[in-house]
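Lab notebook page, bench 4
Experiment: in silico fold of construct C2
Operator: M.H.
Input chain length: 129 residues
Purpose: comparison with the prior construct
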Amino acid sequence: GLEIGSIPRSLLIKIIHGDLVDSCQPGDEIFVVGNLMAHWEPLQANLDCHVHTILVAHSIRVINADDHSGWKGGSDNSSVREQFEREFDTFWDKNTAKHPIAARNFIVSAVCPKLYGMLVIKLALLLTL
């Protein structure tokens, strides 16, 4: 389990659908879509309750099917990364000239909408990533 205020370093991904099994190999960089849920360990008398975060996968897409390292950047991976970089650069160039703090706040507010109104906490989270 995690202590209060700690950030998990890994995430257990549960695959329920049989067609997702063996869709990727160790070392592959993947996109996983699913539901983030709390997983409660069975309760035992006189012991602390442990809760883990798990992701129940609905789909898995391998980004780098040809190479076995996401850092080398296959054709799919590099084009997606370049597209995100272009979109970010366009947004940043357009909005930071007049209001740099407002542009930063827009990005920060888009992260983790369940933490509504906790801008400083979200900013701290993003700075640690």
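Observations: The radius of gyration is 19 Å. Residues 68-74 have pLDDT under 50 and may be disordered.
Next step: discuss at group meeting.
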